[in-house]
Amino acid sequence: MSEKTIDKFRNELEAYIDFDLLDCLNNDFGSSEKEYQVYLADLKKECLRTEPKQSAVILRELSETQFKIYDTLASKWSWNPYLEVVFGVLSKKDTKNYYLSVNEFIPRPSFLDYSSLPVERAIETRSLTLEQYVESFGCLSEKEALVFLYQLCEAVSILHQEDFIHGDISPCNILLTDRFSWENDFDRFSGIHQKISVKLIDFDITKSVEISNHTITSAVGTFPYAAPEIIDFKNPTDRADMYSLGCIFCFMLTGKSPKDAGWNEIAGNWNKEIYRIFADCTANYEFRYASPSELKKDIRRLLCYPDNCFCKIIKKIPGFRNRNPIKMVLFLHSFGIYRIGISAFEEIVPDPSELVLFSMIFYVLFILMWFDVFDYGWKYPEWHHLKKLSPVMAFFIKLTLIAILGGMFVLAICLS
């Protein structure tokens, strides 16, 4: 079928595509014996006047089930810079049905120095997968991995808005390309993300989601990056993509999936904020991120301040950790009350013992906050889950714990 399918559409495509230069990509990224082939097709020169940079397209042979998915994506598509574009689909019914999609070709980044790579790590393909990049250039820094994870969240959110899950998010299905010229909030950090962005591709096993119970009828995926409920056939959910994103995050930092790297090694080597992102992606269903927007919120919290000593101190202060205006005002208000209290004690109480006690309480609480004693989410997923379900309840629980600790400290001083 593979050789005949592309020939079935020769009359429709030969005005735009040079069939003599078709390149079968299955030989590069998969088995050449697959029933449905993927081709890189160069456009003819006369077709490049309007968009000279788009010099090629991807032609993908489809099954009938895949055709329905690609047709829906092409007709309902909301363009996103981090998601492969499906330009359109073709179908022809003969003695058997033939289907073909025309997709965006994503060229490899131009700024990387490919010539300096040793022979065993040389990259000859015109596209660059995340797997190829890590194997040839090494792992990403934490900031770079967070930015790329944020971009993947943008891509996955488009699919979820259309009630689809990708189902096969893996390093082979993520391509790197030159970044668009517009600026973003993450340019304050140095790294390859200033020149490169990622694109999620390959919707061959994308499935629609049953809105009533958030389940999908069937799913398969790349084993090291697939959610446990997919592997165990336990009613896969629309949160399967969130699990895969956590595994991709681990791969960007270590060059391995978490199933290969070892969970204990990951927990011991990463700082708690980075580990929390990974843990909330790969947790059990009830504790896992419910949507890409939740993950994006936590990533922005980690990337909201530049890397300098002042900002590292600011990030330890409640309210300033995620730049929440209400919490920032509350903290500054409490600090103002503290200053008023000092002035009152200095004028009214000649004995400085009460002033010392008041100051010690404040500084003890500040030290506890500095060491994140009140930040339970990274240690206890249940607490982080409560914060998502009821932020107000979690806030009052935290205030109660602070009041109890402060009261116990005052009582201990008085008794002594």
Describe the 3D structure.
Helices cover 45% and strands 11% of the residues. It is an alpha+beta fold. The chain folds into three domains: 1-105, 2-Layer Sandwich (Phosphorylase Kinase, domain 1); 106-304, Transferase(Phosphotransferase) domain 1 (Transferase(Phosphotransferase), domain 1), CATH 1.10.510; 311-415, no CATH class. The strands form three sheets. A five-stranded antiparallel sheet has the order 1-2-3-5-4. The protein has a three-stranded antiparallel sheet with strand order 6-8-9. A hairpin with a 3-residue loop joins strand 4 (86-93) and strand 5. Residues 29-33 and 210-219 have low confidence and may be disordered.
CATH classification class of the largest domain? Mainly Alpha
CATH topology of the largest domain: Transferase(Phosphotransferase), domain 1
Mean pLDDT: 76
Largest sheet: 5 strands, antiparallel
Q: Round the Cα radius of gyration to an integer and report it.
A: 27 Å
Structure in a nutshell:
The protein is α+β, with helices and mostly antiparallel strands. It has helices at residues 2-8, 10-13, 26-29, 64-75, 130-137, 142-161, 228-231, 240-254, 258-261, 263-269, 272-282, 292-302, 309-314, 325-348, 353-370, 381-389, 391-415; strands spanning 23-24, 38-42, 56-62, 86-93, 97-104, 128-129, 164-165, 174-178, 196-200, 207-208.
Task: Give descriptors for this structure.
Transferase(Phosphotransferase), domain 1, 5-stranded antiparallel β-sheet, elongated, 10 strands, alpha+beta, Phosphorylase Kinase, domain 1, 416 residues, 45% helix
